[in-house]
Amino acid sequence: MSARKEMQDSLMFCARRSPVVCLNGCVASSQPLASNIGLDILKRGGNAADAAVAVAAALNVTEPMSTGLGGDAFCLFYDAVSRQVRGLNGSGRSPNALTLDLMEKCGFSQSNPPPIFHAHNVTVPGAAACWCDTVALFGSKTLSLADLLQPAIDLAEKGFPVAEITAHHWAMGTETLKAAGRDLGGDLLINNRPPKHGQVMTNPSLARTFQELALRGRAGFYEGRIAEAVVDVVKENGGVMSLDDLKNHVTAEITPIYTDYKTVRLWEVPPNSQGITALIALNILENVRIKDLGHNSADYLHVLVEALKLSMTDTMHFITDPDRVEVSVEGLLSKEYAQQRGQFILMDKARSDCEHGIPTGSDTVYFTVVDRQGNACSFVNSNYMGFGTGLVPRNCGFSLQNRGANFSLDPRHVNCIGPEKRPYHTIIPAMLTEASSGNLLCSYGVMGGFMQPQGHVQVLLNMLEFGMGPQVALDAPRVFVQFVQAARQWQLYLEEGVKPEVAEELRGRGHVVNWPIQGHKRALFGRGQVISVGTWWDPNREKTKVEQRVLWAGSDPRADGCAVGY
Q: What would the pLDDT profile of 275-306 be if each residue is shown by its tens digit?
């Protein structure tokens, strides 16, 4: 094997990136083509929300095994004039006919759930409505939805060369679905095979779908040809989605939740999203002198992991669709509750218990935009597990998500499956403001299933506690913790770059440690994007009365993307 081929297979990190610095507008995403499309929208007079929708559409073309119109979306928008953070929950509900009784009649139960790619796991795709509502509520009104979708239409019609990491995950997703007896169809393959790195891919069916959305707005997706194609493919594969399920879908405008950690305020989307997980963990960690522990030391990672275990256990037990079951957000976010939970952390011993299992899943896109006026849009769009169910509506060019895999089939659980219900949701955008003034500090996020709140916490601490800039904060090796249901134990995954003696010390405290995680397996640690306003994270910065606004941006090396600005 040649040295070059070996480096490609192992995904070696053999280069460094400087942060992108600019004065006017900035876009950071997991695909360079998408980032540049967002920047073009900013230069044409669009704002952060406009650019975010254009990026979302472009990513549907260039990275369909992570995102698209068949999935869901969440949005946080910072208004520079009012200094308020607003949000949209673009997650879809289960079909009206999908009841626990139906699942039991099909032979499914908590101990025997449906396969993860089953059509019963298709919830109503919320992305299209979220794109439309983002433009309507937060957009500049200078560009139409058609203007924002046209660059993605051009990409889909004329073609684009597939990026390296994208090609790897495209192939992995295809293999997984074929093993499960699923066929992605011609829209997402070339001669029935996934595209290779550098191969030009077109998707004319998706271009036509975008054109209908541009012409008719949300009705172009949730009624008519596309809606009928979605219902047909779901029913053909044993699902129960109806045209009314699609027609009745609405995006929910939400009040973002937050917690103050020292001088900063972290904003997340509320349940049914897992954003509260990051906030609970930060509340617990606020009582620890984090900086004194040293970055990625055994003490630091032990405390971090124990706090994440506590917050994840809570959220997996309490979080569900708040329209169906009341969620005690205020109680979970109280500082007193965090102090109580923090008392369970022992510095010499890892917790081994977990009452509630944590499902697995990943493959999402996160991106962020800050415009010239100071507005910011933090946006995440996802199919859930790669191509989702792998079901591709005829002549539509996208696959349908499998978010319903996160429902419980335990009738006593708050997240139990039911009709017209939103499932526990993993995707979360984040926003950081100054607690005292409300000024924007950064728009950021880390995609990747249940890694997302863990990534939010780690990147924030890298910047605030350890003085790292956006790019260095994203480059730093990460930790991921999950409860493995089959083994009934917490397992810890440490990325290559964490010192071997740290891994050994954590094992000595009772952690089940997997180290080092290398190559393409680094996808486990997510892919983040950060755009920071100024150098608030630098402890040595010179403070002046009047500082010119400079944007500092970073893009995760674990993905193909980049930050671009002007």
A: 999 999 999 999 999 999 999 999 999 999 99
* C-beta of residue 165 within 8 angstroms of C-beta of residue 31: no
**Which residues, at least 6 apart from 290, have a Cβ–Cβ distance to it below 8 Å?**
300, 303, 461, 465
Residue 364 annotated among the catalytic residues of the structure? yes
Q: Own/partner pairs for 252-259, CB < 8 Å, 24+ apart?
A: 252/88, 252/89, 253/86, 253/87, 253/88, 253/89, 253/133, 253/137, 254/87, 254/88, 254/89, 255/87, 256/76, 256/85, 256/86, 256/87, 256/431, 257/329, 257/333, 258/85, 259/283, 259/333
Instruction: Out of 62, 67, 315, 364, pick the active-site residue.
Output: 364
The amino acid present at 295, given as its one-letter code, is H
Domain ranges of the chain: 14-539+547-566
Cis status, amide bond into 272, omega within 30 of 0: yes
- What six digits make up the tokens of 114? 């449906």
pLDDT in tens, 349-385: 998 775 432 333 455 778 899 999 999 999 999 999 9
Distance of alpha carbon 68 from alpha carbon 77, whole angstroms: 20
> Is the omega angle on the peptide bond into residue 411 within 30 degrees of 0, that is, cis?
no
Cα separation of 153 and 195, whole Å? 19
Count other C-beta atoms under 10 Å from residue 287's C-beta. Answer: 15
Return the CA Rg of the chain. Answer: 22
Give residue 483's identity as a one-letter amino acid code.
Answer: F
Q: Is 406 helix (H, G, I), strand (E, B) or coil?
A: helix
Q: What is the DSSP letter of 400?
A: P
Residues of the chain where predicted confidence (pLDDT) is lower than 50? 1-8, 355-361
How far apart are alpha carbons 317 and 309 in whole angstroms? Answer: 12
Q: Give residue 30's region: left, alpha or beta (phi > 0; psi -120 to 50).
A: alpha
